[in-house]
Predict the 3D structure of the following.
Amino acid sequence: MCARRVLRSGPAAETLKSPPNRRRDSRQRELLLDPMPDRVEPCLALLADKAPEGSDWAYEIKWDGYRLAVHIGPGRKVRIITRGGHDWTSRFPTIAADALDLGAETAILDGEAVVLDATGASDFGALQQALGGRGGKQSAAGALLYAFDLLYLDGRDLRSLSLIERRDLLTRLLAGTHSAIRLSEEFNTEGAPFLQLACQIGLEGIIAKRRHAPYRSGRGGDWLKIKCIQSDTFLILGYEPSAVALGGIGRLLLAARKGDSLAYVGSVGTGFTVKTATELRKQLTALKINKPAIPIKAKGTVWVTPALPAEIAFRGWTNDGNLRHASYKGLREGADTADVFELDMA
């Protein structure tokens, strides 16, 4: 309704009144603000064996870090929310500061926080160390956010729009120079050669997305991930102590989920540094139990409650169902809630 300036009395009162409200033209669409969600469950990429082909697929680099949603709320209030719904604004101060410089009144950006190595590739272990390890409280001021989607902007919920439309708005929003928030570039190419190139230069893999799909929460298949080196989350069952290995850990014994229980999937003995192995052993010592959580025989093993999710890179599976050429990358935060690898029931 149009506001009116009212005078108590006098002939000027009539002239200062705003004109009477006119009936809205029924052919004109009424513009209303969409309520800003407190949180949006992320769209997750489904693992695929090969890159899809066709003009409806767009391709991006697969970043190796922590999935974040950056909320810019009314009054220039920024919240950085993890995949598990935890507020980590204080842990990414540079990203939060850059968000305020974007010029949006309200917005929700979807992206991945990473720390880059000397070659420009994302390094999950370096991000872990910057945050102080699992359970640490340090802030990663050097972390970058590679934004790849825009879910809300200046009062409008964008999730029903196609990826093409959302990306166009995101590109415009990030048109300036920002030190900590960058656009995750979309590559106009074919999937197979792009994956081959990504693997040749040492990247983890690529993401394929349907150009005309809306933003759907969950793992519905609109987004696919194709990896050069497989990397998944497994639970630690125990470790073999060593007097000569880094941090005193010879190898970790690992498990995946299988239905409502766990199944042994082999071990990992590489990828540690003195610092990561020492910190890991302290956490494992606090979880020590007298016998393994699942039936398994391994002499000299220190068994632990399977509560720590470890990110493991590997080259495939052996014929007896164990990880092949496994390497330890770091522990997953509880706030990150990455899925523990699920074995087929067959």
Helices lie at 12-15, 93-100, 124-130, 163-173, 191-200, 274-285.
